[in-house]
Amino acid sequence: MFPNVSGLAVFGQTIPNDLSDAVVTKDPVNVDKAPITVSLNRFALWTDHPLQGGPLKGVQIGGGVRYTGASWGDEGNTFRVEGATALDALVAYNYENYRLALNVTNLADTRYVASCYASFGCFYADVRKVVAKLTYRW
């Protein structure tokens, strides 16, 4: 049995792409090939927990994992771009109408190829990104 953790939220998403019917039909060279840059599946899981009492009241912590599956790297489907996993994190402080948040994407600074359009046209995913944000709600 799970402990009762007040305010804990867990979100999940999966996007299985059934590409068995998605094929090129108008290009005579690549007929029946799968489209490029479309991952075969994607998955994300995120959890966050606002602390609701004690000396840390108003603090919110969160974290998540994102997985993007393999995709084809060229129109002829001659090579695949491998899937990859990235971690994200959040630390925030909420006080009255103010919120100070620090978001980190690609926490482990994983370097991977995100997509290709041809054997000479590949792109890396974003490196670790840290964003601080102060907001006020009227």
UniProtKB/TrEMBL annotation:
<keyword id="KW-0472">Membrane</keyword>
<dbReference type="InterPro" id="IPR000531">
    <property type="entry name" value="Beta-barrel_TonB"/>
</dbReference>
<keyword id="KW-0410">Iron transport</keyword>
<keyword id="KW-0406">Ion transport</keyword>
<keyword id="KW-0732">Signal</keyword>
<keyword id="KW-0998">Cell outer membrane</keyword>
<protein>
    <recommendedName>
        <fullName>TonB-dependent receptor-like beta-barrel domain-containing protein</fullName>
    </recommendedName>
</protein>
<dbReference type="GO" id="GO:0009279">
    <property type="term" value="C:cell outer membrane"/>
</dbReference>
<feature type="domain" description="TonB-dependent receptor-like beta-barrel">
    <location>
        <begin position="21"/>
        <end position="107"/>
    </location>
</feature>
<dbReference type="InterPro" id="IPR039426">
    <property type="entry name" value="TonB-dep_rcpt-like"/>
</dbReference>
<dbReference type="GO" id="GO:0015344">
    <property type="term" value="F:siderophore uptake transmembrane transporter activity"/>
</dbReference>
<dbReference type="Pfam" id="PF00593">
    <property type="entry name" value="TonB_dep_Rec_b-barrel"/>
</dbReference>
<keyword id="KW-0408">Iron</keyword>
<keyword id="KW-0813">Transport</keyword>
<keyword id="KW-0812">Transmembrane</keyword>
<dbReference type="InterPro" id="IPR036942">
    <property type="entry name" value="Beta-barrel_TonB_sf"/>
</dbReference>
<keyword id="KW-1134">Transmembrane beta strand</keyword>
<keyword id="KW-0798">TonB box</keyword>
